[in-house]
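Database export, one record per block. Field names are fixed; values are copied verbatim from the stored entry.
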Amino acid sequence: MYIMSDINLNLILAIFIGFGSTLIQSLTGFGLSIVSTPLFLMIYDPKQVVLILQVICVVINIFFAIALRKNVDYRFLLILFIGSLLGQPLGLLIFQIAPNNILKIFVSLIILFFLIIMQLNHKKITETTLKTGITGVLSGILTTATSMGGPPLILYLANANRDKVSMRATCIAYFAITNISAIIIFLMGNTDFTFAIEQSIYLLPFCFIGLWIGNKLFPYLSQKMFNRIIFVMLLFSSLYTLYSAF
């Protein structure tokens, strides 16, 4: 009786987390993993969180990327993706061997590191093929290790001369293809997705509602507010994840 009640409560909480984080994803082009990862850690085992988010993100991001395809920078996307493919095997190795608490600390410290860089460096970044490729490698490592491949890309684009429309569409398209490649790499590593798929079936309908609402609100979001949301999301995610590791 009590066990069943706890299960139902956890599922309801997971649904709210999925809805809210997908709404933010719709507004900014990212946020589904960054917001939901530390919150899902209250409910699920860290490694199951990674797999659940791989399943949810691949469905949501493919759907959304198709809708935003006209605003995607495809050359930039290709360079990022090649870099990501190079980084994902290393991320899978980290996922397989790292203890749960170490994985949490790793996630939070990576995000805090990028936040400090963003605050110290107020100059705009000039996009180059090398910088974009390195960003892709770092993102690929974090995608398979933690499901949070966003921070390197978000901070790179936020400090480059990218308007919110281009940034949002390109991020969504990038996450869609990296989620596909990440799942393939996980399957090659004999990872069991059974539990992740079961949970995703419950969460996805509410994620799509969040996606729809966020898309309706997007035109009213200013560039300044857009950048503030980026910072607050990353700071909250890193601090909470670090706290939960101890």
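Remark 1: The two ends are 30 Å apart (CA to CA).
Remark 2: The chain has a mean pLDDT of 84.
End of record.
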